[in-house]
User: What shape does this take?
Amino acid sequence: MNISPTTSNSSSTFTANVVLTTHSTSVSTFTTLRIAVVEVEEIPENTPNASTGSESPLTSNRESTNGEDETSTRHNSPALQLRPILIPRPLNAKDVKTAPWSELLITSYRFIARQAVDFHLDIKKPFSGQAVLMLGKARQHVKSVILQFSAHQKHWGADLLLKDQFKSKKDTLSAKERREKEKREEGEKEQQENEKRTTKKKPTSDVRPLL
Assistant: This one.
């Protein structure tokens, strides 16, 4: 078999001449067949990735197809909903004094809750009669400063502090009003007594009848 190469700028062509020999008893028959031309593409040496080889287009298509399948699966799958674990109120935490906080924390917590009461709650109404919006703002005020209270169930930590300071402020105002009332009553009583003394000391006029 004879192979004669034919080169070009981008590829090399090889032509193969195959000689098939058929022997018989008396005559030797030589048959020459011309095989189809095979073209082999030459890769220049300075081409990037020439040593490592280029990726197969079939592989890239398969990878892109798998990526699209993964993306569509990710979008079609239901989103995971992460819910935080909330801390329930301790059974013995009936008020601030029985809550699981130290005395130092209670002092600072009360200061924060007092600000929330002053800013958002109406002291003239009972705590249970506060507007839902304003009560929510008061709770958020406390939780924005005391971040761990955000993990409490039903706002129990913020509510304990708000009720404590709401009652404290109401008691303070009631005591102030009571003192002012007592002082006012004492002033009125003193004024009445002074008027009585003045009336008693007033001299009576000695008027004699004319003859």
